[in-house]
Amino acid sequence: xxxxxxxxxxxxxxxxxxxxxxxxxxxxxxxxxxxxxxxxxxxxxxxxxxxxxxxxxxxxxxxxxxxxxxxxxxxxxxxxxxxxxx
Length: 86
Hints:
The protein is mainly α. It has helices at about 1-15, 20-25, 30-40, 45-55, 60-65, 70-85. It is built from 6 helices and no strands.
């Protein structure tokens, strides 16, 4: 999880123009903890923490952990299912 999560979290922070300090203020997660998630290989976050971060950034936990490619695939499948159901 570590490397993908770090890249995805960093990407989302950049996309939203949010600093680590701002994310900390919005989630209640200490800056030092968030900094560890962005820099340390062996850091494992709790589900509660992942949910707080994802909710604040308006993305799914799955997106943060797995990444964009899987979301695109699911969106395509969902569109196809919607078209079939019409």
